[in-house]
Amino acid sequence: MTGIAVLPPATLLVTGASGFVGRHLLAALHRRWPNAVVHATSQEAIDAWPEDSGVHWHRLDICHTGRVAALLRHLHPDAIIHLAAQSHVPTSFQQPALTWRVNLQGTLNLLEGVKQESPWSLVLNVGSSDMYGGAFRSGEPVTEQTAFHPLNPYAASKASADLAAGQYAASDGLRVIRARPFNHTGPGQRDDFVLAAFATQIARIEAGLQPPVVETGNLDAQRDFLDVEDVVSAYLALLELPEAGLHGQAYNIASGHAVAVGELLDSLLARARCPIDHRLDPARQRPADIQTVRADTTALRQATGWQPLLSHGAMLDRLLNDCRRRVVAAAQ
Question: Could you tell me the pTM of the whole model?
């Protein structure tokens, strides 16, 4: 028996689906299971929802306990991919209460709602590599057994949500998978994330909208980056795990190789259509920064056979070309 039954057509629910990853995930779900009935939630107003064919949109505040329960009672989804989150680290320092409410209380609302209203639903809870935090200082690749050591409100709230998901699986028997994706980027990512910030500045410079200088933070930090499409393909692979793999197991999602942010910036600058310099902007420095982030992905590869398909070059091409399109569209 696999994680979700596709015959008869499965009912799938994606929370926080109007965000960066959600839009890629919805398209991937349609490609993988074209007969599935896909529902998606967003906190945005109706006129801001994307018009994805075949997706049933619901306006939902994940922090509203009663509305989360009511939606689950109505849908009884076969699988839920929980993306809804406050995912921006600087914002988590500026608004810690909001970050904790969305990331932890929102997840508790979902898990309790599943327990009460739809206990056979499979829940794919999406965490973050940031949960490991200070554990990266060892210099060793982290495994799923590495203790969390969060260094910011975002990481702490996601770590608590991850632990809660594991607890509901252990004590209440919920069918849960805990995904722990590392850095990812791609078309549609906001420009307050590092590679999208670089690519957006390059696109603006090419369009003559700013001087030929890219402002940067710490370029020596080494991170494990994937294209968002590879992360989404890992989520789909996890949804197809056999029943024995649906009891709260955790999986790192990464390439297993760290690369310096400066090296990725150099690759982006080499793709620019005009000469561009770069300089350090102290405002872009992050407190409690970690030098190297590296993952052990043995568990994911052994369980699913997943491996990333897009190279860093392809990832950067996709990101930069998308930023170019968005800059041109915004200027019209």
Answer: 0.95
Residue 304 confidence class, pLDDT cut points 50, 70, 90: very high
CATH value of 188-223+258-292+310-331 in 3.10.50.30, 3.40.50.720, 3.40.50.2000, 3.90.25.10: 3.90.25.10
Confidence at residue 4, expressed as pLDDT on a 0 to 100 scale: 75
Domain boundaries, the chain: 11-184+225-253, 188-223+258-292+310-331
Q: Supply the DSSP string of 178-207, one letter for each residue.
A: EEEE--EE-TT--TTSHHHHHHHHHHHHHT
Copy the structure tokens of residue 290: 């970690």
Q: Which fold has domain 11-184+225-253?
A: Rossmann fold (3.40.50)
Q: Whole-angstrom distance between the N-terminal and C-terminal Cα of the chain?
A: 52
pLDDT digits (tens, 9 = 90+) for 50-102: 665 689 999 999 999 999 999 999 999 999 999 999 999 989 999 999 999 99
Say if residues 239 and 28 touch (Cβ distance below 8 Å).
no
In this prediction, residue 47 has a pLDDT band, given cuts at 50, 70 and 90, of low
Concatenated DSSP letters of 241-254: -BGGG-EEEEEEES
